[in-house]
Specification:
six-stranded antiparallel beta sheet; 18% strand; 844 residues; single chain; alpha+beta
């Protein structure tokens, strides 16, 4: 069920947390840095290597290595301000620097027309090295700016002798209007549940955050406030990944259908949730609609985009990319890479991650076809431009990406012909609030890599068998490309894409491709049955296994597959298409799924992901991290896919339970009480790091559509926003290393491979639980002592006992309702039993 946001408290909490007390008229959320928090002040740079920021000794420090071309190429800003025409404002700030330099300060519109309400008469301020600059000025606004920012420009002609540091001591913007007290945020929900709900016969668990050491009485109330079930929680203890003391509430025995149930335990409550058969019926489609919104080279328009605000002109309709300069690759001067899906929040298109996303969706189609469920995505089901062409809509969507990948194969006559270009992207990063059609950066393609080539081989081989009976010509084209790519990869087995940071795109490096060869061989063998592919897949040292730790960039982390570690994909393909020939794959899948379930048992929030130590290369400085990796949510949904296959192999409900419990975490059973999927749950993802769905950055841009999955908690904390919020490397609990903010690219980006996995899992959970169940008659629970069954134990019940106190069963006025211990007499034992429950309320 698509739930609407019902309360504002949690949305206000982060914004208000730093301003729990209010000084008269202060508009800034952070005025000094004594707490170690700089958010919402954020550093903005023309390129990542220009500058970086941190808080030290109560100062917000900007370290500048390069000045850029323009003064705004290095800037600090505070957004979300409102300036009213006719109001008088006072601007104050203090700052210093380690060298002589200048700063241009202004109060300005965050978007067009960029009206500057104040700017020191267009003059910059001069800072003398190691001396404090203190400014105190007033101005009257000439016009209203509903979305303004306080900005300090430090780059370009303003910069001093490099490198140097600018230290902000304090800032203030006061409108001289008496302050309205900050509202008290709604208390956090200390019972954490799947905010959508649970299927009638699935596992149903919640996590209670409490310091209590003994079991706690919990009650389940229906939408009328009537208690329909109760029990006691199971103490778990300290949960390191969340930093919480927790207990587990298991109410799996409740099967009655209903909406807006709520768990209560003492003062703790949960968000409302449903028990029903349609929990993911809409989400499985919305998760796939992500890919239409991500299309490159086509107008996104009604009726396919659902709402007019999500329409946009075609991005990169003629996506002709030049070869990246500075390489020694003798490839085509240009490649026409029109089409495909944008990878995430930026405008890049990548073979390796695109291959993973494409494989997952093509596998989803294959799985649905073999299980007789393909009508779920039958023609017209997804409402996309191809709907009505007589072909399954899921296949139509995958073809959009498949045809783009084919364009990235290097043609004959060039060096490394048959291989695939690693990626196509912008030469420099575009800014947030940039539609794809507004992208003015130069488009470049990167030389081929072995990993990209094997992604192409695997996905085209997979597509060839899928399309064989639907579009034979396209199937033949795919198979030819697959076998060509295979041979090219064998001829160039160690052309590795580096892990280095790039200026306009993700690196997506990989220096281990044995698993990619295995994956591609599995796909080619499943399609052709040729012995050479069988020999190749058998030669892989981990053939038929489902990995439980990753290779490549994230080597050693607990996972089953990702864009670098693809061996598990080959094993799943064999399980689906060649299970009888390779019975070993079943054992490999079950073994991996068992390990995921064991991990779940050790985690207070039932998540199949444990903390780990790893080397983080996402930021400009390599760092050793303990906790969760980047895109931790993707690890969870990927493992849920493996547990789905384990259920297919065994029909053992522990695997379907493990899968649904894993998704409970994604949907709100987590310490942040956050649904990481936009549009779903009471506290959903709202502000992903995305260049189009970014109203926080520019209110004229649209909110995110439903069904987008955030990457989620990331202990690396690489972006300035989470650093500015005071989060601390290796100190902030792993599951709390997250902010729902457009600027938090390291914790809140969205991505095609993550959403593909979400689409797969929601399809499967919906299918497995799609059973016709008649509503169970509602049965109410009444506490001992609720004699008149009014939903509470109170003085009315005391009066009932008092009227019949001393009576025995043979007395004509004996009231058996008052014989609470059923010993045939109404006496002090009954009074004591009532006293134990006195004050109990089952209906609010």
């Amino acid at each position: 069920m698509l739930k609407k946001l019902s309360i504002m408290g949690l949305l206000l909490f982060i914004v208000m947390a730093a301003r729990m007390t209010c000084s008269a008229g202060e508009l800034l959320q952070t005025t000094n840095f004594e707490s170690g928090v700089s958010s919402p002040w954020i550093l903005s740079r023309g390129a990542e290597d220009y500058a970086y920021s941190y808080v030290k000794d109560g100062k917000f420090v900007v370290h500048i290595d390069k000045k850029g071309t323009n003064k705004w190429d290095v800037q600090v800003r505070h957004r979300g301000l409102s300036i009213v025409a006719g109001y008088m404002y006072t601007v104050r700030f203090s700052m210093t620097a380690t060298t002589n330099c200048k700063v241009y300060a202004k109060i300005v519109d965050a978007g067009e027309p960029y009206y500057e309400a104040w700017n020191n008469n267009w003059n910059p301020f001069s800072i003398t090295a190691n001396q404090v600059l203190t400014i105190n000025q007033t101005f009257t606004a000439n016009q209203t700016s509903k979305d303004a920012e306080f900005a300090f420009h430090l780059g370009g002609e303003l910069a001093g002798m490099l490198p140097y540091e600018v230290q902000f001591i304090s800032m203030s913007l006061n409108d001289n209007v008496p302050c309205i007290p900050t509202p008290t945020p709604t208390p956090a929900r200390n019972i954490r549940v799947n905010q959508l709900g649970y299927y009638p016969y699935s596992v149903k668990k919640a996590t209670l955050a409490t310091n209590a050491k003994e079991p706690v009485l919990w009650k389940l109330k229906n939408s009328s406030g009537i208690v329909v079930a109760s029990g006691t929680s199971q103490p778990f203890g300290f949960d390191h990944a969340s930093g919480d003391e927790v207990q587990i509430i298991d109410f799996s025995g409740v099967t009655m259908l209903g909406k807006d149930y709520q768990l209560v335990a003492g003062d703790a409550t949960s968000f409302p949730f449903d028990i029903g058969n349609d929990i993911y019926s809409n989400m499985k489609y919305d998760a796939l609609k992500y890919f239409y919104h991500a299309r490159s080279g086509i107008d996104i328009k009604l009726p396919y985009c659902v709402q007019s605000k999500w329409a946009r002109p075609a991005g990169h309709p003629n996506d002709v990319a030049a070869l990246k300069t500075g390489t020694d690759y003798a490839g085509p001067e240009k490649i026409d890479g029109t089409g495909g899906w944008y990878d995430g929040g930026d405008h890049g298109k990548y073979l390796v991650n695109g291959g993973l996303a494409l494989w997952i969706l093509q596998n989803q189609y294959e799985h649905s076809k073999l299980k007789g469920l393909d009508s779920v995505y039958g023609d017209t089901k997804l409402n996309i431009p191809e709907s009505g062409n007589g072909i399954n809509d899921l296949l139509d969507e995958t073809r959009w990406e498949m045809e783009w990948m084919l364009k990235m194969q290097i043609p004959l006559g060039y060096e490394k012909a048959g291989m695939a270009a690693h990626k196509l992207a912008d030469e420099k990063w575009t800014a947030l609030a940039t539609r794809p059609d507004q992208d003015k950066e130069k488009r470049i393609y990167y030389p081929p890599s072995t990993s990209a080539t094997l992604n192409l081989a695997a996905c085209t081989a997979q597509a060839a068998r899928i399309w064989k009976g639907i579009d034979p010509a396209f199937a033949d084209e795919c198979l030819s490309a697959a076998e060509t790519a295979w041979e090219a990869a064998k001829a160039n087995p160690a052309v590795f894409a580096p892990y280095d940071l790039e200026m306009g795109s993700e690196a997506y490096g990989d220096d281990y491709v044995d698993d990619d060869f295995y994956w591609a061989a599995c796909e080619l063998y499943a399609t052709t049955g040729k012995s050479e592919y069988l020999s190749s897949l058998r030669s892989y040292k981990e053939c038929f296994e489902m990995p439980v730790s990753l290779t490549g960039e994230f080597k050693g982390l607990a996972g089953c597959f990702d864009r670098c570690s693809t061996g598990g994909l080959g094993t799943l393909t064999l399980a689906l298409n060649k299970g009888d020939e390779f019975p070993e794959v079943k054992a490999g899948i079950l073994k991996a799924a068992d390990s995921f379930i064991e991990t779940q048992k050790k985690e207070g929030y039932g998540v199949p992901l444990s903390e780990a130590s790893y080397t983080d290369n996402l930021s400009s400085v390599t760092q050793e991290v303990y906790g969760y990796p980047n895109a931790s949510n993707s690890y969870i949904v990927d493992k849920a896919i493996v547990m789905a296959y384990a259920y297919d192999c065994s029909n053992n409900s522990k695997y379907s339970d493990g899968m649904t419990e894993a998704i409970d975490y994604i949907m709100g059973r987590n310490p942040l009480i956050k649904s990481y999927v936009s549009g779903y749950g009471e506290n959903p993802l709202k502000y992903p790091h995305h260049r189009f769905f970014c109203p926080q950055e520019d209110p004229s841009f649209p909110s995110v559509p439903p069904g987008f999955l955030s990457g989620g908690p990331n202990s690396g904390l690489e972006d300035p926003w989470v650093i500015g919020a005071g989060y601390s490397l290796n100190n902030t609990p792993a599951q709390k290393c997250y902010m729902d903010h457009v600027e938090s690219w390291s914790t809140n980006e969205v991505n095609i491979s993550w959403n593909a996995a979400l689409a797969w899992v929601t399809y499967y959970i919906d299918a497995v639980n799609k059973v016709s169940v008649s509503p169970t008659p509602t049965t109410y629970y009444y506490a001992p002592g609720d004699i008149n069954k009014d939903g509470g134990v109170n003085m009315t019940d005391v009066m009932f006992i008092a009227r019949t106190f001393g009576k025995i069963k043979t007395d004509p006025d004996f009231d058996e309702r008052c014989d609470l211990n059923m010993d045939g007499a109404i006496n002090m034992m009954d009074v004591m039993k009532l006293a134990l429950n006195f004050g109990y309320v089952s209906k609010e």
